[in-house]
Write a structure and sequence with these properties.
With about 90 residues, the protein is an alpha+beta fold. The chain has a single domain, classed as Arc Repressor Mutant, subunit A (Orthogonal Bundle). Helices cover about 45% and strands about 25% of the residues. The protein is built from three helices and five strands, in the order ββββαααβ. It has a three-stranded antiparallel beta sheet. Strands 1-5 form a two-stranded antiparallel ribbon. Helix 1 runs antiparallel to helix 2 and helix 2 crosses helix 3. The radius of gyration is 12 Å and the shape is globular.
């Protein structure tokens, strides 16, 4: 399970995408629609499986493929300290 690192970033929706403001680096990052939905799921306290199931339903992709991509995204967000493992 992960949570948003609210001490480091601000996060909001912009159209179908999302925007992160990294307060430590004083820079903005744009998230594509999928990354936004993954981060929104984290913000809502959803498990990885719940995020995967929602994306599979919306995009009609295999659960195995989706799980691999969601885990990759979560790892990247965690590495950048945008989210924290709890």
């Amino acid at each position: 399970m992960y949570e948003i690192n609210t001490e480091k970033i601000l996060f909001t929706q912009l159209g179908e995408e999302g925007v992160i403001y990294d307060m430590d680096k004083n820079e903005y990052l744009t998230l594509n629609e999928t990354y936004y939905k993954i981060l929104k799921g984290v913000e809502e306290g959803q498990s990885t499986i719940a995020i995967v199931q929602a994306l599979c339903t919306e995009y009609r992709i295999s659960e195995q493929e989706c799980l691999a991509e969601v885990e990759e995204a979560l790892t990247a967000l965690n590495t950048k300290k945008i989210i924290l493992k709890v």
